[in-house]
Amino acid sequence: MSLPSSSLAASSLSNWAVVGRLFRLTWSYRRGCLKVLATQVVLLTMGLSGLSLTGLGIDYIRNTMAAGAGEVVPAPKIFGLALPAGWAPMQVILGIAGVILLLAAGRAFLNYAYFVSVNRLLQQELVVDLRGAVYDRLQRLSFRFFDANSTGSIITRVTGDVQSLRMFLDQVLFQSVIMAVSLTVYIIYMASLSPRLMLACLATTPLLALLSMWFSRATQPAYAHNRTLVERMVQLLAESIQGIAVTKAFGREAENRARFEAANQACYDQQLGIFWRISLFSPAVGFLTRVNMVVLLTYGGWLVAQGQLPLGTGLVVFAGLLEQFSGQINNVATVVNSVQQSLIGSRRVFEIIDANIEVQSAPQAERFQRLRGDVRFENVGFAYSGVDPVLRDINLELRAGQMVAILGATGAGKSVLMSLIPRFYDVTSGRLLIDGRDIRELHLDDLRRNIGLVFQESFLFSNTIAANIAFGHPTATREQVEKAARIAAAHEFITALPEGYDTVLGESGNTLSGGQRQRIAIARAVLLEPAILLLDDPTAAIDSETEHEIFEALERAIAGRTTFIVAHRLSTLRRADFIIVMENGRIVERGTHEELMAARGAYRRVANLQLVDARELTAGGEEGAEP
Ligand SMILES: Nc1ncnc2c1ncn2[C@@H]1O[C@H](COP(=O)(O)OP(=O)(O)OP(=O)(O)O)[C@@H](O)[C@H]1O
């Protein structure tokens, strides 16, 4: 049997598919994009106007100097408007200079407006929306996804890769459109001045195009590899923070530092390789564009000398156009460099947005409030991957309000059996029914709202204690929160804290003891008033005195609910309606404590090894063994 893979590496989009997605994304921000591009067109027009006015001014000065005494040189028209008749040459020149200055001031203002609107569009809209979309997807993705992908990979996708996607709009799309429009206008303008000079000056352009294509192809694998290295570094960082206590306890700080430094150095070395390539490409482009200037000076100068081209509106304007043309061509290096980076980053963002949500509500699933709590496993099997089932032939039935205790060696499948009930994973064979209905037909949110969970170690959020208890029911009143805390034997220690229920917990609740965290977790589960309670060895990480207190709390929590509990206390096993013993993913025995002890099978064997109150067990066992 093969299951859909949730590994991100498995779902690679082609470059063209990524570009298509990026264009569709851009379309949804079309108003902002059009505004940005329109600003650029106005900037271009103003730049060209300034340039042609400079040419006009130079020609006017040249003609005035060449004119004989008493000869009047007609003042040029500015944008078709004649200057006042009778202006002295100096006034005309100052008039032209004044308009050039006004245009420059207008350009400076528009450039400012351009940067503000690009920043607003990209950083404040696009990046925020995208991060939100990726985060939203991550919240809905199934456990299988998180099993298959490292934290480092997920974090870099939400942070760095979203920025790389932004780079596509900013440094690729906008730049390319601006470049295409500007280069076309420059070419038309240059051709209108002198087609031959234009052809001569732009002879190196095809070489530039070839160089860019080669550069783009050569850098793509390097950028892809770079992402993997950064991912590895972030993963090491995340792990070292999560495992800081273990690192310190074993005195492994130096080794961890060395591993991180090696990962950091690998990123640096690889970045350096990319940097060298860019460093070669940019000057090469720069050199080719300088060659154009040499052609202009020699051939263009000859045309002016021959009287075939005016000096100002011809050669000087041409030089300005060529300068700007070269500037745009130099940008090719940035665009080409950004294309690969942004495509790789964008692909990684889309892979998360597209990742398959394996476990979700059926489209027609009806909403409901309360479950009764009858649970039935019918020939259930489950495998994490296609090959090795970790649960086989599970047949189990609990009526509402019953309690089953699960016993089994480590790795026997106790946790995974429970994780199927809230659909953390879907069964891979057989059926799981609640209140007589296959759980895949139930609305997922409603199903989970009816299930309370306490794990071996409970995760709390860096928020107030009250908010943590009300996590599954944010609109709960303070009375409801306190009631749940009382049931969980947490009220006393909470009220002893200076801020009481409003105490803000540290990251992962690390300002509380393990026992206190578990009690808050029990309160969090109880507050939901769930029909089904799943208790996965909730005292595993707790000393025996606290364990006793927690079990007293659990006694109150369990009352009236269908309960699955993994426990290692005889008192708990005795309290259960029946016990199941698991081995290698199968239920190998079931019955009450007394029945199972009498059977002298797997239960007795496992119980002797695992139960914390084993002395009591021997007495109980003997009673059961010899009725
Ligand atoms: N995310 C996972 N991917 C692949 N295999 C897994 C995963 N989680 C658990 N397993 C495997 O599934 C089997 C059952 O694991 P499970 O956690 O249910 O055991 P358990 O009986 O609860 O053990 P313990 O008492 O130690 O908690 C084990 O062989 C384990 O190695």
UniProtKB/TrEMBL annotation:
Parts of the chain that traverse the membrane: 36-58, 78-104, 172-191
Molecular-function GO terms, alphabetical: ABC-type oligopeptide transporter activity; ATP binding; ATP hydrolysis activity
GO cellular component: plasma membrane
Domain ABC transmembrane type-1: 89-341
Cell compartments where the protein resides: Cell membrane
CDD domains to which the protein is assigned, alphabetical: ABC_6TM_exporters (cd07346)
Keyword Cell division: no
Topology within the bilayer: Multi-pass membrane protein
Keyword annotations: ATP-binding, Cell membrane, Membrane, Nucleotide-binding, Transmembrane, Transmembrane helix, Transport
Domain of life per record: Bacteria
Domain ABC transporter: 375-609
Predominant location category: membrane
Entry protein name: ABC transporter ATP-binding protein/permease
The species this protein was found in: Horticoccus luteus
Phylogenetic classification of the source organism: Bacteria, Pseudomonadati, Verrucomicrobiota, Opitutia, Opitutales
